[in-house]
Amino acid sequence: MTLQAAARLTEILLALALIQQSLEHLVRFRSEQVLFGVRIVLCGLVLAGIAAPWPLFGLAGLSVLILYRFEGPYNGGSDRMGLLALWCLTAARLLPTPALQELAFGYLGAQLILSYFISGGVKIVNPDWRSGRALADVFRFSAYPVSETLRAWADRPRVLLAMSWAVMGFELIFPLTLVWKPALIAGLVVAGTFHLANACLFGLNRFFWTWLAVYPAILWLQGRLFH
Amino acid sequence: MRSPLTLLLPALIPSWNFFDVIAPSPRVEYARLRSIGDTAGDWKAFRPKPQRLSPLEMLTRLVWNPRWNESLFLVSCAERLGDDETAHSEAEIFKRIAADVVREPQDAERPWLCFRVIFVSRVGEALVDEVQYQPAPRLLSGIAVA
Question: Is the ipTM of this complex over 0.90?
Fold first, then answer.
């Protein structure tokens, strides 16, 4: 995949993810309807490829206004990945030389790898994660389980121990998949399934669409580094 | 109010330390009060979770999840209150509670609205609740919900 093709695919997937998020804001307050209505229009222009790259630059500028409106990301990590993707794509369009454009887009791919690897690293050094207790606490009292019935999972220590090590193991070995494209594709399928499970169990639907949008960047980076 | 650069920088240089520790978890409760000094409020959980969700409902939320995502934003606001970033977070929580409360049957005898943030944590094998933040009540009619 060429840089242009990968960046364009990422733009399209990100625009779709941002439209999905923005539609959710249209049902609430007027000030949010204005901000997110404008974002939907700009995403539509990105999807249609009209007036490129200006709608992308507009989205980057608007993202700062939205950050200002909520004094930070509206939905934590998923919004941060969306912002990172948006600004890397904008830089890749804006920078003057192919090498710098590759650097900007490659940074996005590298951050995707780090998003898994660092998440695994910070968990495995915590004894509560290694014993399965941390995941039990997530189910028992965190704000994330989408229903009260799911809290009963906290009382399945063996299942949670296995799940904890599966998550940590996958996150830590994910960078190794970069050396062989079929392994990377398999890794991304597992990662996508992981995000799907998080969306169903913890309501983190924005993570699913945003991380999916960035997958072309890592597929391009793999080809760029190992071919 | 933080500068745009300090808001954007954590996204451009992310830390990715998701769930590194399972910190005390905030719950937002609200009450309608007779007066600003009323202490006999009937506290209710704001947006309690459903008892169960069907697989179809979970999958539907993949593409349409505004209430849950707003609840997660309120969790962020409640955590910021714990970090002493009060004015914006307090106003956001009041506004979003008020927007729901104005749809309930009106109670002219209880024109004041208040909320409190309870942090739940595990101490040993027991779960403990602690009220960590409770602002001054506001008149429900004075909170802009448009």
Answer: yes
